[in-house]
Specification:
By secondary structure, the protein is mainly α. The protein has helices at residues 15-26, 43-46, 54-61, 74-79, 82-87; strands at residues 63-64, 69-70. It has a two-stranded antiparallel ribbon.
């Protein structure tokens, strides 16, 4: 009989918390945690690359990692092609994605107070 993954759970107590700290650290979503508190093994291999910083992404799309909040109604910007039309002029010269160094847009909720 092959054991189910949950049968080995007691062997790995606390691993989930460490994994989450690592994940949030790699994507820069836990600025309150010192970078020395999470594991950086193979981060250069499995990291984010260098096309844009996570901070630039969060700033562009209205994500506040300090207060753990997002702007609402982002789908309205993305859904009907507005984001595509607004960002297309900023395609990278290699044609692979957007040159976020040229993007100054910062999404804010178009309907504050409406859920």
């Amino acid at each position: 009989k092959v054991p189910h993954f949950w049968e080995n759970g007691p062997k790995y107590t606390g691993t989930g918390k460490k994994a989450m700290q690592r994940l949030l650290g790699i994507v820069h979503m836990n600025p309150e945690i010192p970078i020395s508190d999470w594991i950086h093994t193979d981060e250069d291999v499995y990291g984010l690359g260098g096309v844009r910083t996570p901070e630039k992404f969060y700033e562009t799309f209205g994500i506040d990692v300090v207060h753990k909040r997002t702007q609402h109604h982002l789908c309205q910007f993305v859904d009907k092609g507005k984001m595509h039309n607004d960002f297309t002029p900023f395609l990278r010269k290699d044609g692979i994605g957007i040159d976020y160094d040229q993007i100054t847009y910062q999404f804010t909720d178009p309907m504050p107070g409406v859920q």
